[in-house]
Design goal:
The chain has 9 helices and 5 strands. By secondary structure, it is α+β, with helices and mostly antiparallel strands. Among the domains are: about 80 residues, Alpha-Beta Plaits (2-Layer Sandwich), CATH 3.30.70; about 60 residues. The chain has a 5-stranded mixed beta sheet with strand order 2-3-5-1-4. A hairpin with a 3-residue loop joins strand 2 and strand 3.
Length: about 325
C-alpha cells in the first residue's frame, strides 16, 4: 500500500515538472516572437483588426501630405457690397469710413458729397479693400449709424481666371513660334506675312493680359459702395399748439400776401385802364366839341311834346 502511494506521488511530481517546463518554453517562444520583427506581408495578413486600426490611425493623423486641405472659399471671388446708412453728421462719418479703408490696406476709388435743400447732407463713397479685410470693414461701416439697407454679392470667377491663364500661355507659345519663323525667313514676302501674324497675335496677347490684370484687381480687392445721409431737420413740430406770436406772424403773412395779390390785380388792370382813359380824353376834348348841337327850339318842342312838368307846389302861383 505504501509502495502504491509512493509511485503515485512520484508520478504526480514528474507530471507537474513536465508541465512547468513546457509552459516556460511556450513563454520563451512567445517572447522571442514578439521581439523578432515581422515581415511586411505577414503583418498585413496577420490580423484584420490590426490592419483596420492602423488605417484608422492614418486617417486621423493631421497634415498628411497625401490629403491636402480643401479651401473654404474659391480661389478667385469678386465680392461687392452696397450699404445705405443714416448718420448724424455725414462729413464726420465719411472721414471715418475713409480712415477705416486706409487702415485695412485699401483706398477710396470715388467720392461725392451733396447738400439737399440746405437742410441735410448726403455722401457717396466707393471703397476698395483687401479680400481678407472685407468682412471686418463691412461690419464697421454698417455700425457707423442706422443701417437702412445692405446688399452683398460674391461671384466665383475661378473658371474664367483659369481660362484666361491658359489662353495667355497658348498665345505666348504662338508668338514665340512666329518669331522663330521670322528668324529663319529668307524671302521678303514671308517676312511681311509673318510680321502681320505676329502683330495680330501680340495684340490678342495684350488683350488677354489686360483681362488677367482686371480680374486680378477685382479678386484681390473687394468693392464697397457706401451711401451716407443725414436725417431731415424739421423747423416746426407737428404736435406744438400755436401761440400768440404764431397767430400774429400768420396774420402778418396773410396781410402781406393780400397786398401782394392786390398789387398783382392792379398791375394787370392798369394797361386796360390807361387805354380807356386815353379813349375817354379823345372823346371828351376832341370828338365831342366837333359834334353838331341841337337848336334851342327843338329842345323846347321836345319838352312840350313830352308833357308839362310838375305843377307848382303849395303856396306857389
Amino acid at each position: 500500500m505504501r509502495a502504491r502511494r509512493t509511485v503515485a506521488a512520484l508520478f504526480l511530481t514528474a507530471s507537474l515538472a513536465l508541465a512547468g517546463c513546457s509552459g516556460g518554453a511556450d513563454d520563451m517562444s512567445t517572447a522571442d516572437d514578439k521581439s523578432a520583427p515581422r515581415p511586411a506581408a505577414e503583418g498585413a495578413a496577420g490580423s484584420g483588426y490590426a490592419a483596420d486600426k492602423d488605417s484608422g490611425a492614418r486617417q486621423t493623423q493631421p497634415n498628411q501630405p497625401n490629403q491636402p486641405k480643401q479651401p473654404l472659399l474659391p480661389a478667385h471671388v469678386i465680392r461687392t457690397a452696397v450699404l445705405d446708412v443714416e448718420v448724424k453728421n455725414a462729413s464726420k462719418a465719411l472721414a471715418a469710413a475713409r480712415t477705416t479703408a486706409e487702415n485695412a490696406g485699401g483706398h477710396v476709388a470715388n467720392e461725392s458729397t451733396e447738400r439737399i435743400d440746405d437742410t441735410h447732407v448726403t455722401s457717396r463713397v466707393v471703397l476698395r479693400v483687401p479680400q481678407e479685410k472685407y468682412d471686418e470693414v463691412l461690419a464697421e461701416l454698417a455700425g457707423a449709424g442706422k443701417l437702412l439697407s445692405r446688399k452683398a454679392d460674391a461671384k466665383d470667377v475661378t473658371d474664367q481666371v483659369v481660362d484666361v491663364e491658359s489662353r495667355i500661355a497658348t498665345q505666348r507659345a504662338s508668338v514665340n513660334r512666329v518669331r522663330a519663323l521670322m528668324d529663319r525667313a529668307v524671302k521678303l514676302s514671308d517676312v511681311v506675312t509673318l510680321e502681320g501674324q505676329l502683330s495680330s497675335r501680340q495684340a490678342e496677347l495684350e488683350s488677354l493680359l489686360a483681362q488677367q490684370a482686371a480680374l486680378k484687381d477685382r479678386t484681390a480687392l473687394a468693392t464697397i459702395t457706401l451711401s451716407l445721409s443725414e436725417p431731415e431737420k424739421r423747423e416746426h413740430k407737428e404736435d406744438d399748439d400755436p401761440g400768440f406770436l404764431d397767430a400774429l406772424g400768420g396774420g402778418w403773412h396773410a396781410l402781406v400776401a393780400t397786398g401782394e395779390w392786390i398789387a398783382v390785380v392792379v398791375g394787370a388792370v392798369a394797361p386796360f385802364a390807361a387805354v380807356l382813359a386815353v379813349l375817354y380824353a379823345l372823346w371828351r376834348w376832341v370828338l365831342r366839341p366837333r359834334l353838331p348841337r341841337r337848336p334851342h327850339n327843338e329842345a323846347t318842342a321836345h319838352a312840350t311834346a313830352t308833357g308839362p312838368g310838375p305843377g307848382p307846389g303849395p303856396g306857389q302861383d
